[in-house]
Design a protein that fits this description.
The complex is a heterodimer of chains A (299) and B (503). In chain A, strand 3, helix 5 and strand 4 form a beta-alpha-beta unit. Chain A has an 8-stranded parallel sheet. Chain A has one domain: Aldolase class I (TIM Barrel), CATH 3.20.20. In chain A, 46% of the residues lie in helices and 11% in strands. Chain A is α/β, with parallel strands linked by helices and 299 residues long. The longest helix of chain B has 22 residues. The chains are: A alpha/beta (299), B alpha/beta (503). Chains A and B meet through helix 1, helix 2, helix 9 and helix 10 of A and helix 9 of B.
Chain lengths: 299, 503
């Protein structure tokens, strides 16, 4: 397949996208389908800590939470991955060992990406050498907005090569792209350049993930699948804090891409505080009562 | 990845060879029925004449069924000539009495009160509308009832501003209006008819459709509770014969009808030579024109709303899809995949997208059109969703490989059935869209604004939606070209239909 001409935009109608999301938000998720979805959401989580003050101790705690999110219910699913900075990959890897939980590392001069490509490639290689299973890269938004689409493409392809066997998630930072058509274009570039996942945001820019942006990206994934038969994953990240939001995202995936994407190989939530709200809802569904937030560990 | 969840056991397997994507497995929505234990349905409903509920003169009643279950839910009185005459006399008395000379702001006050009471009882009306007519609660709750209230609010505002509505002319009420409404939007069509009529100082005799009279009688209760003077609103139930009695009554000043083109023609014939005014909102066969530069995913969403809204029982439904040749395969593929996600079933379930076909008669009509389509050589595609065994349900349906000369392309089916044709140029699209006796509504999807105006101006159609479909607002006039009707409802234009203009 030849590479698309990225100077040509795929039109997106903003009003209709937002109406579609509003309609999907009216889906009523009750009873067993709610419990199932909450567990699914938990299993799709990339438990994340991305702060300048991150330390080994903090990452160890996060790994414990990832393996056993809520001790009174040991049968609940584990989360999909922990997501950390490259310098924390070794620690994370050690503490999730044998659990099946992936270690994802942000790289490429996260979150701005404002470093020479060679530095970003080295950053990626370092993370992979430390044991990262997945790399979350950022695209050069400045280059994208000034129309240098092929440069963005080449950078992603270069990072993909540096990843080796590690899965590559491409962060578009949609809050800086401003239009749905830009989101669509960036998604197409990322998929064609070799990204295994496309991801909305770093979490450092507001707005982070939104449902309309996610819908536009899911539709890009669907079109790519129609064209190539290849399934690309999706990761909304940042700003998803409540179980209700998580269920709404799952409805978006279910009704846009269907069952094949409803697992943690093809869909992830990037979040730090979402897990506890999901846990609280699961306990509520089982006991009929809300527990105090103090019953859930803050890690 | 080795993290096991319950999702991992089911391998990816599309449900249909026509669809690459699988929407049917892994995670299903549990039933989410809207409760109906708060609504009261009487065993029998009488006629509403002169502010009172009265028995029909011949004592005949007819059953009303819930089309989703085929269960009888209540019965309505059959109004005969004597009852209609009584209703018209009561309306005349009220018109000659206080109503037409009431201070305009007081008329407005009653309309505002009706609007607020509709909002207060919105949930009840929505549930009843879905039980009686089969439409999904999502639509009755989010469209029918709020819009009905909005019409009353809107025309309440006009009541004391009529002198400013028609510069240089003085509007006067017409008198007694006979109004006959269809079964597809029972309460909403009632609002379209009654709100402007009352705002202008007229009184009304309204006949709801025989399969969906429930909310009209509930509305009669509301009118009574609102303290509207007796005789201003009269509601008589019955079938076509009752409607004919209204149309032919000598003391009716204006007839407002929404329904089929066939009946509309009969009405126009019987009104010929009389001085009765009339407005007719009739059938349609709307075209959806999708250009290759359109935002395709959003166009597909618009198509879904155009044809599957209210089971396709919409006079302005977009039932003919015209796609530019270059993108037809993509559009049809996406349409089929989108149709797989439509949930057909219990109208009271909050997740239902398509409810029950309104009546056994309409169910048979739609099915006979599907047979005609097959005989004409069309390829029939229906989504794979499960549908309830009882009740009248039809899966969303696409007819491809059809020609402009086919009956399924020319005639109004009034169900969830969409025909798909192609075009090459904008002129060809306009020609095909206009090549119908109807002209009620149409839609255009393109990313190019100038094309919207060029094509929109070429369509002989009362409404043209651009990059959307089935959007309604009380401020916007609605009505047809050609055999889709005479006159306009809604907005300022809708007021004009209920006044005589004096110099």
């Amino acid at each position: 397949m030849s590479t698309s001409d990225f100077s040509v935009s795929t039109p997106i109608d903003q009003v209709s996208v937002e109406e579609r999301v509003a309609r999907l938000n009216k889906r009523s998720i009750k009873k067993e389908s709610k419990v199932q979805a909450l567990k699914l959401a938990l299993s799709m989580m990339d438990l994340t800590t991305l702060e300048g003050k991150d330390s080994e101790g903090k990452v160890v705690q996060l790994c414990q939470k990832a393996k056993l999110p809520y001790a009174p219910m040991p049968d609940l699913p584990k989360v999909a991955a922990v997501c950390v900075y490259p310098t924390m990959v070794r620690t994370a890897k050690k503490h999730v060992k044998g659990s099946g939980i992936q270690v994802a590392s942000v790289a490429t001069a996260f979150p701005s990406g404002m470093a020479p490509l060679s530095v970003r490639i080295d950053d990626t290689k370092f993370a992979v050498d430390e044991g990262a299973d997945e790399v979350d890269m950022v695209i050069s938004r400045g280059a994208f907005l000034s129309g240098e689409y092929n440069l963005v493409f080449d950078e992603i392809a270069a990072i993909k090569e540096a990843c080796g066997k590690a899965h590559l998630k491409v962060i578009l930072e949609t809050g800086e792209l401003h239009t749905y058509e830009n989101v669509r274009k960036a998604s197409d570039i990322a998929m064609e350049a070799g990204g295994d996942f496309i991801k909305t945001s770093t979490g450092k820019i507001s707005p982070a993930a939104t449902q309309p942006v996610t819908l536009v990206m899911l539709e890009a994934i669907r079109d790519y699948y129609y064209r190539t038969g290849k399934m690309i994953g999706m990761k909304p990240a940042g700003g998803i804090r409540t179980a209700k939001q998580a269920l709404q995202y799952l409805v978006l995936v279910k009704e846009t891409l269907g069952a094949a994407w409803l697992n943690n190989e093809y869909f992830r939530f990037g979040a730090s505080s979402l897990a506890n709200d999901v846990l609280m809802q699961i306990v509520k569904q089982q006991t009929g009562q809300y527990q105090s937030a103090d019953y859930f560990s803050v890690d | 990845m080795s993290n096991t969840t319950e999702t991992k056991e089911t391998p990816y397997k599309p449900t249909s060879p026509n669809s690459k994507l699988d929407f049917a497995s892994i995670w299903e929505y549990a039933p989410a029925p809207e409760s109906n234990d708060h609504v009261e349905i009487a065993e029998r409903y009488e006629l509403f004449i002169d502010g009172k509920f009265v028995k029909p003169s011949k004592g005949r009643y007819f059953k009303s069924t819930n089309p989703a279950t085929k269960e009888e839910i209540t019965e309505f009185a059959e109004a005969t000539q004597a009852d209609v005459d009584k209703a018209v006399k009561s309306a005349r008395k009220a018109f000659n009495g206080e109503w037409s000379t009431l201070a305009p702001k007081t008329r407005g006050k009653y309309l505002y009160r009706i609007a607020r009471m509709l909002q207060e009882r919105a949930r009840e009306f929505a549930v009843l509308e879905s039980m009686d007519g089969g439409k999904p609660i999502r639509e009755s709750r989010d469209v029918d009832v709020p819009l009905a209230a909005a019409h009353f609010f809107y025309y309440a505002g006009w009541a004391d501003k009529l002198d400013y509505a028609f510069p240089g002319k003085k509007p006067e009420p017409i008198g007694v209006c006979g109004q006959i409404i269809p079964w597809n939007f029972p309460l909403l069509m009632l609002a379209w008819k009654i709100a402007p009529a009352l705002a202008c100082g007229n009184t009304v005799v309204l006949k709801p459709a025989e399969t969906t009279s429930l909310t009209a009688l509930k509305f009669a209760e509301l009118v009574k509770d609102a303290g509207v003077p007796a005789g201003v609103v009269n509601i008589v139930t019955g079938a076509g014969q009752t409607g004919a009695e209204i149309v032919n009554h000598k003391d009716i000043d204006k007839v407002a009808f929404t329904g089929s083109t066939g009946v509309g023609k009969l009405i126009q014939k019987s009104l010929a030579g009389t001085d009765k005014k009339f407005t007719l909102e009739l059938g349609g066969k709307g075209a959806l024109i999708v250009f290759e530069d359109a935002p395709i995913d959003q166009a597909v969403e618009g198509i879904i709303n155009a044809i599957f809204f209210n089971q396709g029982h919409v006079c302005c439904a977009g039932s003919r899809l015209l796609v530019q040749e270059g993108v037809v395969d993509l559009v049809v593929q996406k349409l089929k995949d989108r149709m797989e996600t439509l949930i057909v079933g219990d109208p009271l379930d909050k997740n239902t997208d398509i409810g029950a076909i309104n009546s056994g008669q309409q169910f048979d009509t739609i099915n006979s059109f599907l047979e005609i389509g097959v005989e004409e050589g069309a390829d029939v595609y229906q989504s794979k969703c499960s549908i309830p065994e009882n009740g009248y349900f039809i899966r969303p349906t696409l007819l491809t490989n059809v020609a402009q000369s086919n009956r399924v392309v020319q005639e109004e089916i009034f169900g969830p059935v969409l025909t798909v044709q192609t075009f090459r140029t904008a002129d060809e699209a306009i020609d095909k869209a206009n090549n119908t006796p109807y002209g009620l509504a149409g839609g255009v999807w393109t990313d190019k604004g100038s094309k919207i105006f060029k094509v929109g101006a070429g369509l002989r159609s009362g409404v043209v939606w651009a990059n959307t479909y089935n959007k309604f607002d009380p401020t916007s006039p609605f009505g047809g070209y050609k055999e889709s009707g005479v006159g306009r409802e809604g907005g300022l234009h809708g007021l004009a239909a209920y006044v005589n203009l004096k110099k």
